[in-house]
Amino acid sequence: MSAPVATPTAAYDRLAELHALDATTSGISGLVATGLTEIPRIFRVPDPTPQHEAAAMAADDEESATLPVIDLAMADHAALVKAIGLAASEWGFFQVINHGVPAEVVSGTVDGTKAFHESTGGEGTEKARLYTRDLARKVKYNCNHDLYKSKVASWRDTLQLTMAPEPPAPAELPEQCRDILLEYSKEMTKLMHTLFGLLSEALGLNSSYLTDIECNKGQVITCHYYPPCPKPELAMGLGMHSDSSFMTVVFQDQVGGLQVLNNNKWIEAKPIPGAFIVNIGDLLQIVSNDKFQSVKHKVVLKKTTAPRVSIACFASHPTSKRKYGPIKELLSAENPGLYREITAGEYFALQHSSAIDSYKNKALEKLRCL
């Protein structure tokens, strides 16, 4: 029998339930391990079709558009630059194949992520050692970074690592995936260098431009784990949001669930074996002066007995003192700058001052000067 949905007047101590979840240091994985059959109230979506999404109807699976797929080994370099520029400006999302990241590094990272998240929690475990909400920690594990801000908790646990510009000591990383995460970080740095080079050229700039202004200097990796959900239609994997980074590179397993808002429709980012999903972040929209688009996306839960694993790598450097605004070489009388300058850290704080599931990108709008 389904758990009743409480009325607005019913006595309910949400904060106590949130603290109780935190106290387990085991996240949602720990709840599922107990044989959970119902959705705790903190995860229940009160309205499956919120008003702000009413106009964004899900596209029919058979007729929906698909994300652009870009072959990074394409022989025609000019065509490659053009393709990535169009994808960044028209979609803000695309998938890349033939990217050069060894398959064994990807599969090893996914396996290591599963091993960590599926390990036992509680006192004396790796999970307990790393469980924290201290933003200053380079390696941290928790359930929902915005747990105490969002109206509905996401059905997701996360291991987060700040790998650059100053990586953590290897011993800080969880033993289940320590070596493979260090290798994965190196591969992501190389892939992002390639992508920033192509995006620089797509803006009509020198290929090293975005790297020279340190867009690829910081790196944060988040290893997300979405346990099987007993009632996926009543919960959410991750609420609608955009990324505060310059760029994000994501590997999602074959379970899928990532959806992208395009032309007022939710488009499924269908898994392609071995491919990475790339999306433009808010900071790259700012420096490109809206040439490239940072768009809303979310994760929906699937009816499956398998967990979903995704590894997201963010080009983000929140401790940098460099100020970012529209690139001056892109501006003219006909194309004036649209944003005020801001540091990456200031922008991160501005965006994360509200819950992740806020409909409008208030941070970008606050920076607009026209």
From TrEMBL:
The Fe2OG dioxygenase domain, residue ranges: 217-318
Origin superkingdom: Eukaryota
Keywords noted in UniProt: Iron, Metal-binding, Oxidoreductase
SUPFAM superfamilies cross-referenced by the UniProt entry: Clavaminate synthase-like
InterPro entries with a match to the protein in the record: DIOX_N (IPR026992), IPNS-like_FE2OG_OXY (IPR044861), IPNS-like_sf (IPR027443), Oxoglu/Fe-dep_dioxygenase_dom (IPR005123)
This protein's record includes keyword Cell division: no
Pfam families attached to this UniProt entry: 2OG-FeII_Oxy, DIOX_N
A GO molecular function held by the record: dioxygenase activity
PROSITE patterns assigned: FE2OG_OXY
Record's keyword annotation contains NADP: no
Stated family: Belongs to the iron/ascorbate-dependent oxidoreductase family.
PANTHER family reported in the protein's UniProt record: FE2OG DIOXYGENASE DOMAIN-CONTAINING PROTEIN, OXIDOREDUCTASE, 2OG-FE II OXYGENASE FAMILY PROTEIN
Protein name (Swiss-Prot/TrEMBL): Fe2OG dioxygenase domain-containing protein
Lineage: Eukaryota, Viridiplantae, Streptophyta, Embryophyta, Tracheophyta
